[in-house]
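[User]
If only I could read backbone structure tokens as easily as an amino acid sequence. I have put the entry right below:
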Amino acid sequence: MDPVAVDEQSFKPHTWTDLKHIIENNDLAALRRDPSDLIKYRNWSDEIKRSYDSINQYLCDEKLHWTPLASTTPLARPLFAIKNPILFENLQDFQILRNDWPYGLTEEITHLVVWLKNKIPIDNVSGDLTHESRRDIQKFVRRAFIDRLDRGDAVECVLWFKNWSGLQSVRGIDHIHVLVRNVPETLLREWIN
């Protein structure tokens, strides 16, 4: 389905129940942005590519403030010096940011992105996460988000996913998406580096 095929009037934001179903079934192609936001995002993306040559360059320069290694060529995936080859083990190897262009979500849901200097291992055949990388991400999400909520329903207030490459609008800098529900702004600010 074309992501802009849904018109503004018939678009319904994803609810938490919708998101749980989509993520549990790995039906990530079903995630949609509000149609007017999608048009704005595409226009913004075109402008950023003209100004910075790529979205990756913009992210490195303006959002993440990471400098790719000198061996990185302009069209290649940026490579970074990392402090620890194990995912999420060193705070300098990742950053949590609010998604500037979130999917269409109901208002109690916040869309965060965890950007990594490390490459997240994927299965070469399926393109999906390996069992080990899925386990490492789940441990990180529990430690960084669920445990920090410090409330009985915390596990029900955090979802995460990693788009496979065919769905990624930003390729080259590995990242995962984290969706949180009913989280106070003070805690969101603590998470965002």
Observations:
- The first strand starts at residue 94 and ends at 98.
- The beta strands are 94-98, 109-116, 158-161, 175-181.
- The longest helix spans residues 131-149.
- Residues 121 and 133 are 6 Å apart (CA to CA).
